[in-house]
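Structure first, sequence second, as always.
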């Protein structure tokens, strides 16, 4: 049985996915958005802000905001650095936090990346 998938990808209005790496930035099925990871090469206030601004754009592609986020997965090569700068991330949620998992890993897909965050968001039915 086939499911209906809608996709959005950065500045790619025709194919709406990256065919080289093989992913879509946002995949919508029913009223759920699955958002691929946004990355930063620095664990600094600017780097973290950049990640969450990219996620904000991903959410907006289907009319969502951080209020729609129900799950966040964060992968980093420096968990202590992320803990120290968590206040930057928290501003985007405005005290309405999702379920979240943070994991320290050795390396991300992009060799220069130090943090990657992916989201699941629900849209109203």
């Amino acid at each position: 049985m086939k499911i209906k998938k809608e996709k959005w990808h950065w500045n790619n209005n025709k194919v709406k996915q990256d065919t080289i790496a093989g992913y879509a930035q946002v995949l919508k099925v029913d009223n759920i958005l699955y958002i691929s990871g946004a990355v930063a090469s620095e664990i600094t206030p600017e780097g973290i802000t950049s990640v969450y601004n990219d996620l904000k754009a991903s959410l907006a592609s289907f009319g969502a905001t951080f209020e729609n986020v129900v799950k966040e997965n964060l992968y980093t090569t420096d968990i202590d650095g992320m803990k120290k700068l968590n206040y930057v991330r928290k501003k985007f949620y405005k005290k309405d936090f999702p379920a979240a998992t943070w994991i320290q890993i050795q390396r991300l897909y992009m060799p220069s990346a130090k943090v990657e965050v992916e989201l699941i968001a629900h849209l109203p039915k």
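Margin note: The chain has a mean pLDDT of 95.
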